[in-house]
């Protein structure tokens, strides 16, 4: 069964790159470029996992993550961000309880392995 991954990032180049990598590995990919678009699409698209950027205009990834958890507590969410400081990782993984914290730039193999692990939870 094909797993559906939602990519949420305000950078079209990042979305296109991640989409290309995941689609060539057999994943179905849906996209959102803002937090509000992500939240609207969750009900209709029902993804198996979300890759969520932290730094976005209007509503940042932390706020989107909190709203996802309020409604979809079992939906795996990985933060996908350039914020690579230990404090950011600790906040994402241990305070907010994201399922993974992937920093940009990332390698193709690492991204695919981590997404597979995310959907196999």
TrEMBL record:
Coiled coil: none annotated. PANTHER family: REGULATOR OF RPOS (PTHR48111), TWO-COMPONENT RESPONSE REGULATOR ORR33 (PTHR48111:SF1). The modification 4-aspartylphosphate is found at residue 53. One of its GO terms (biological process) is regulation of DNA-templated transcription. Residues 4-119 form the Response regulatory domain. Keywords: DNA-binding, Phosphoprotein, Transcription, Transcription regulation, Two-component regulatory system. The keyword Transport does not apply. One of its GO terms (cellular component) is protein-DNA complex. The keyword DNA-binding applies. SMART domains: REC (SM00448). GO terms for molecular function: phosphorelay response regulator activity; transcription cis-regulatory region binding. It holds the Pfam family Response_reg. This is Response regulator with CheY-like receiver domain and winged-helix DNA-binding domain.
């Amino acid at each position: 069964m094909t797993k559906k991954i939602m990519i949420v990032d305000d950078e079209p180049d990042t979305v296109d790159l991640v989409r290309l990598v995941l689609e060539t590995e057999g994943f179905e990919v849906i996209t959102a470029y803002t937090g509000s678009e992500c939240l609207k699409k969750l009900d209709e698209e029902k993804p198996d996992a979300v890759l969520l950027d932290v730094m976005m205009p209007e509503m940042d990834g932390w706020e989107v993550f909190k709203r996802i958890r309020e409604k979809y507590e079992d939906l795996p969410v990985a933060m996908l961000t350039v914020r690579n400081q230990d404090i950011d990782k600790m906040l994402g993984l241990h305070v907010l309880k994201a399922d993974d914290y992937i920093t940009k730039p990332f390698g193709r193999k690492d991204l695919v392995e981590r997404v597979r692990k995310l959907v196999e939870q």
